[in-house]
């Protein structure tokens, strides 16, 4: 007997949420039963030091469609999400926090948007129930910067409550703290992205795992995302700019060295500078050509894999 097909996989990373996990799972089960689809719950214990895992093991005995993954130590929210996503079998993957601030009742609205033809649907905590100075204001600034840098206008990139088509989210390579930038990264593979307003609740148990210290990580991640999005298709353009500048500087110093030689003045330093700039120009141009080659090889390989998967599916 073949197992029934899973339509939705709900992935929840957890870190020291022993007081929240049972109520959260029961709310997810209740929300899922009210909808006409099959679902699975994937809990990822990100190295909790409290009784979170014991609670999960107890819930596994009571709920058959619940799967769990345990990390021996804390790796971070993004690796925990990736582990859950990799184990998902549903056509749609929904991610959410384990602190009860996301409302599982909003899952149905996210899925409905996916069914309308979107690939990624982001939750927008329009009426956010967090501290204004340490959470809301920095978040608004970060979201504005992310929109300007990536060109993907999302009000709330930090909201974990999102829905994705399985093939889209699994085609995106996530690392570090990149879960905040998933909407922007999915645009690399041509995903259609939208957002809807979702409920946000006060945290009643436990403490937040994020503070102002994450600002620097977000800023550095923004630079990485900017490069990934624009570097992906035409890497040569990133290297051509500095190469041209160094080449022009080399010409300028070369002309200056010739002028000094005619006037019987010292030219060693100027000639050395000219040689250095020409070398840098050639180096950047070579790196750009190599990057262009590797990107084309990667894209050709990715396309071949896609064709292979499609051919297997149609057999």
Can you walk me through this structure?
The protein has a 7-stranded mixed sheet with strand order 3-2-1-4-6-5-7, sandwiched between helices. The protein is of the alpha/beta class. β2 (39-45), α2 (52-62) and β3 form a beta-alpha-beta unit. The chain folds into 2 domains: 8-231, Alpha-Beta Complex (Spore Coat Polysaccharide Biosynthesis Protein SpsA, Chain A); 235-314. The protein is elongated, with a radius of gyration of 25 Å. It is built from 10 helices and 7 strands. It starts with 7 loop residues before the first strand and ends with a helix. α5 runs parallel beside α8 and α9 runs antiparallel to α10.
Task: Write a short abstract of this structure.
The chain is an alpha/beta fold and 315 residues long. The chain has helices at residues 21-33, 52-62, 77-86, 107-115, 132-150, 166-169, 182-186, 214-231, 235-262, 268-314, and strands at 8-14, 39-45, 66-70, 92-95, 120-124, 162-165, 193-197.
CATH class of the largest domain reads Alpha Beta
User: Judging from the principal axes of the Cα atoms, what is the shape?
Assistant: elongated
Radius of gyration: 25 Å
CATH architecture of the largest domain: Alpha-Beta Complex
**Beta-strand fraction estimate:** 5-15%
Helical proportion, percent range: 40-55%
Kindly report the average pLDDT value. 82
- Helix vs. strand class: alpha/beta
| Low-pLDDT segments, ≥5 res | 302-315
Distance between the termini: 21 Å
Q: How many structural units, i.e. domains?
A: 2
Q: What's the helix count?
A: 10
Order of helices and strands: EHEHEHEHEHEHHEHHH
CATH domain topology of the largest domain:
Spore Coat Polysaccharide Biosynthesis Protein SpsA, Chain A
């Amino acid at each position: 007997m073949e197992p029934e097909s899973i339509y939705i996989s709900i992935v929840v990373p957890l870190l020291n949420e022993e007081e929240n996990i049972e109520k959260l799972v029961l709310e997810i089960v209740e929300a899922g039963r009210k909808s006409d689809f099959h679902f699975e719950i994937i809990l990822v214990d990100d190295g909790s030091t409290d009784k979170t895992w014991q609670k999960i093991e107890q819930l596994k005995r009571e709920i058959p469609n619940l799967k769990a993954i345990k990390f021996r130590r804390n790796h971070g929210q993004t690796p925990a999400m990736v582990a859950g996503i990799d184990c998902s079998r549903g056509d749609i993957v929904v991610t959410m926090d384990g602190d009860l601030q996301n409302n599982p009742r909003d899952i149905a609205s996210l899925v409905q948007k996916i069914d309308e033809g979107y690939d990624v649907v982001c939750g927008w905590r329009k009426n956010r129930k967090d501290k204004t100075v340490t959470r809301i204001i920095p978040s608004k600034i970060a979201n504005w910067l992310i929109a300007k840098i990536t060109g993907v206008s999302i009000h709330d990139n930090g909201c974990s409550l999102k829905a994705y088509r399985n093939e889209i989210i699994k085609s995106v390579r996530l690392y570090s703290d990149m879960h905040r930038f998933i909407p922007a990264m999915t645009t690399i593979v041509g995903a259609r992205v939208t957002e809807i307003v979702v409920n946000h609740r006060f945290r009643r148990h436990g403490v937040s795992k994020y503070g102002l210290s994450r600002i620097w990580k977000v800023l550095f991640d923004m630079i990485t995302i900017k490069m990934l999005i624009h570097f992906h298709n035409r890497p040569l353009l990133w290297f051509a700019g500095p190469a041209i500048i160094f080449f022009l500087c080399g010409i300028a110093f070369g002309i200056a060295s010739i002028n000094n030689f005619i006037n019987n003045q010292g030219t060693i330093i100027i000639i050395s500078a000219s040689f250095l700039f020409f070398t840098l120009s050639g180096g950047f141009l070579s790196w750009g050509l190599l990057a262009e080659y590797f990107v084309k090889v990667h894209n050709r390989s990715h396309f071949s894999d896609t064709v292979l998967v499609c051919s297997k599916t149609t057999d």
